[in-house]
Amino acid sequence: MKTILRMAALVVFLSAGFVQAADFSGTVSGPDNSAVTLTAEVRPSVTPGMPGIFFVCSYLQTGDWVCNNRGVWQYWTPGGEIPTFSFGTLVPTTLQILQGMDVRPYIGTSIYVGYGRTASEMLANGTYALIYTVGG
């Protein structure tokens, strides 16, 4: 499998008066945009074993947001409850976001991954990152 993109983002946020860092990376593979597989590596910067939620949302070129709700992509309106990708323990995790998907209709779409005990906590602490933008 040919890796066509590997990027990492370091997100720094304040929590209980300390600066902490969360590491995010996305790996994309596939022959071209007609069959893209995307995984995200998330290494939370929290006390190991803390329960939490992982979120996956995409910003489309139309200005719309869609979020992955336990495997089903659905439109999301900012201000509403952010759909949950998965619940679990906040430990280093690999998330399978796309598998063999034709992304040609989605050129310019940005995919974000985040985590927190709640969506509000994720947004307040900045524990999310852009992991992939669909290129043309």
Secondary-structure blueprint:
Blueprint: E1 3-15, E2 18-29, E3 36-43, E4 51-59, E5 65-69, E6 72-76, E7 86-89, E8 93-101, E9 110-116, H1 119-125, E10 128-133
Antiparallel strand pairs: 1-2, 2-3, 3-8, 4-5, 4-7, 4-9, 5-6, 9-10
Task: Give your account of this protein's structure.
It is a single chain. The protein has 136 residues and is mainly β. The chain is 5% helix and 57% strand. It has one helix and ten strands, in the order βββββββββαβ. It has one helix at 119-125, and strands at residues 3-15, 18-29, 36-43, 51-59, 65-69, 72-76, 86-89, 93-101, 110-116, 128-133. Strands 4, 5, 6, 7, 9 and 10 form a six-stranded antiparallel sheet that branches. A four-stranded antiparallel sheet has the order 1-2-3-8, with no helix packed on it. β4 and β5 (65-69) form a beta hairpin. It is globular, with a radius of gyration of 15 Å. The two termini are 20 Å apart.
Structural class: mainly beta
Q: What multimeric state do the chains show?
A: single chain
Distance between the termini: 20 Å
Helix content: under 10%
Compute the number of strand runs.
10
Stretches with pLDDT under 50, minimum 5 residues: 1-20
Alpha-carbon Rg, integer: 15 Å
* Sheet of most strands: 6 strands, antiparallel
Mean pLDDT: 84
Query: What general outline do the C-alpha atoms trace?
Result: globular
Question: H/E series, N to C?
Answer: EEEEEEEEEHE
Task: Kindly estimate the percentage of residues that lie in beta strands according to DSSP.
Answer: over 45%
DSSP helical segment count: 1
